[in-house]
């Protein structure tokens, strides 16, 4: 298999997987530090953003921790899926541009979407709401998710074309004849 056209997308996907893994390791050793940081950030904004409502600040801090877990899981899962997309595109010898496009878009999507959840989690306690945090960096989520989806759609369409519409070449017919004899 030729990795020439998918190498950059594979690198992005591997970075996403390593990023998610590092977060998981960080949770194992430093979960309380994450949660303390969220509480401290919420406390700093208690009067201005929460109108002194400690229960609301606690709720946002807890949701920020959920966002950290989303960053961890999305980065790793989407990174693995991106690698699969890239390998399928290369293995079925799609055109070089299609291989590269699928690989880079899915790799970027997997990394960017994980970062979106990480940043939103850290912003939310200081901003006073998870909605405000997501809104502040919503473009990152939109571009990342769209990139990943476009890669998936392109792979699906190219795969469907290859399987259902494209006629075998003479070389492929000869190979099939050799296998059957």
Please characterize this protein's 3D structure.
- The protein is an all-alpha fold.
- It contains seven helices and no strands.
- The protein has one domain (7-180).
- The chain is elongated, with a radius of gyration of 22 Å.
Task: Please indicate the percent range of residues in DSSP E strands (runs of 2 or more).
Answer: under 5%
Report the order of strands and helices: HHHHHHH
The dominant shape is elongated
**Unreliable segments (pLDDT under 50, ≥5 consecutive)?**
none
Which descriptors would you attach to this protein?
7 helices, 181 residues, elongated, 88% helix, mainly alpha
SSE topology sketch:
Layout: H1 7-44, H2 46-50, H3 54-91, H4 96-127, H5 130-136, H6 138-165, H7 170-180
Task: Please give a quick description of this structure.
The protein is mostly helical and 181 residues long. It has seven helices and no strands.
């Amino acid at each position: 298999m030729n990795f020439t056209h998918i190498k950059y997308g594979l690198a992005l996907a591997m970075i996403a997987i390593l990023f998610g893994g590092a977060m998981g390791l960080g949770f194992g050793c430093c979960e309380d530090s994450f949660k303390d940081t969220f509480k401290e950030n919420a406390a700093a904004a208690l009067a201005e953003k929460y109108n002194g409502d400690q229960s609301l600040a606690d709720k946002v801090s807890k949701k920020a921790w959920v966002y950290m877990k989303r960053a961890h899981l999305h980065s790793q899962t989407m990174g693995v899926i991106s690698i699969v997309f890239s390998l399928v595109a290369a293995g079925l010898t799609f055109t070089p541009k299609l291989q590269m496009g699928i690989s880079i878009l899915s790799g970027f999507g997997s990394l960017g979407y994980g970062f979106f959840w990480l940043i939103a989690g850290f912003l939310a306690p200081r901003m006073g709401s998870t909605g405000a945090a997501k809104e502040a960096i919503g473009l990152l989520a939109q571009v990342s998710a769209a990139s990943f989806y476009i890669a998936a759609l392109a792979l699906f369409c190219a795969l469907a074309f290859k399987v259902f519409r494209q006629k075998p070449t003479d070389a492929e017919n000869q190979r099939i004849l050799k296998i059957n004899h």
